[in-house]
Design a protein that fits this description.
The complex is a heterodimer. Chain A is an all-alpha fold. Chain A has one domain. Chain A has three helices and no strands. Chain B is mostly helical. Chain B has one domain. In chain B, α4 runs antiparallel to α5, α6 crosses α7 and α8 packs antiparallel against α9. The chains are: A mainly alpha, B mainly alpha. Chains A and B meet through α1 and α3 of A and α4 of B.
Chain lengths: 98, 203
């Protein structure tokens, strides 16, 4: 039987980044994407100087990526919404005229 | 490290994989449920690390690590986040792009588009295992997997097809059965990986 080396504690901020990141994708909401990004950056800045005492880099990075993806999706959805709002009345007007 | 001819013990590996699954069925079902739900909820972004977590559990069980792995250990896949994420992302994009281009060729293209993912999955079958076990980067791990599989392609293709059929048979039950059957495929491949690459001295 082999033994497992002692496990480093995961930084709570990294776990928060992951949870908020997942929530931001599941519920498509910006209010959880921004905290996910903040927690992710904070977790990384705390883990990187002391990699021997804390872990959770992967979770922090996952939270960051999901947070940024949610923000990008939100911005794209807003842009699409604005385009539709601008073009649909014009299209209706054109249809009515013909 | 094994490159060149490998004796693919088909039946023996499948049986050992099944025994490994049967002995830890509770851990497997919960870990698999977590992995599948999180992967789907995150539109596949976390499928790489969740798969890496499943592989970590499988290898720990094959190596008889003490203490025994628990269902929560599926989150150990996040220790390999970047490499497992890149592995799934890059190969996923390559597979999608190739399938799209092949579908443009009428008839023959469609047939090749069905075969290509199976061939590519066989070539890369040990990629994620190498990332988890040997902490390799995704590209060298992919290339090493390819080099090991290449001289023994057809036996490994058979093993991959069998484990894919077993792993996906749960799809019949409205897809929910995959939670139960997918870990069997992971166990079979973990046994195969250990037999091909041997035990890592220190992990």
């Amino acid at each position: 039987m082999s033994t497992v080396p002692e496990q480093l504690p995961v930084t709570p901020l990294a776990v928060w980044a992951l949870v908020l990141g997942i929530a931001s994708l599941v519920f498509c909401c910006l209010p959880s994407a921004i905290p996910a990004i903040i927690c992710g950056h904070l977790a990384r800045s705390r883990i990187e100087p002391t990699p021997a005492t804390a872990s959770g880099r992967g979770m922090a990075m996952a939270g960051l990526i999901m947070g940024y993806v949610s923000v990008v999706v939100f911005i794209l959805a807003c842009v699409l919404g604005v385009i539709l709002c601008l073009t649909i009345p014009a299209l209706i007007k054109q249809c009515n005229a013909t | 490290m094994t490159e060149g001819k490998v004796d693919v013990k088909f039946g023996e590996w499948i049986q050992q994989g099944w025994e490994l699954y049967k002995a830890n069925i509770g851990v497997w079902i919960v870990a698999s449920l977590l992995a599948i739900v999180i992967s789907i909820a995150t539109v596949g972004i976390l499928s790489g690390p969740m798969m890496a977590g499943m592989i970590w559990i499988a290898l720990a069980l094959v190596d008889k690590k003490d203490p025994k792995p628990q269902m929560g250990d599926v989150f150990k896949g996040f220790d390999y986040f970047l490499q497992s994420f890149l592995f799934c992302l890059i190969w996923g994009i390559i597979m999608l792009a190739a399938s799209f281009l092949l579908h443009l060729i009428i008839c023959v293209g469609s047939v090749v588009a069905i075969i290509l993912p199976i061939v590519l999955e066989t070539a890369l079958m040990f990629g994620l295992f190498l990332i988890v076990d040997k902490k390799m980067e995704f590209w060298p791990a992919s290339m090493l997997s390819l080099n090991v599989v290449k001289p023994n392609f057809f036996p490994f293709l058979g093993l991959m097809v069998v484990s894919m059929v077993i792993g996906h048979i749960g799809m019949i039950a409205c897809g929910i059965g995959v939670i139960v059957t997918m870990p069997i495929a992971v166990c079979i491949l973990a046994v195969a990986y250990r037999n091909v690459f041997g035990v890592q001295a220190a992990t």
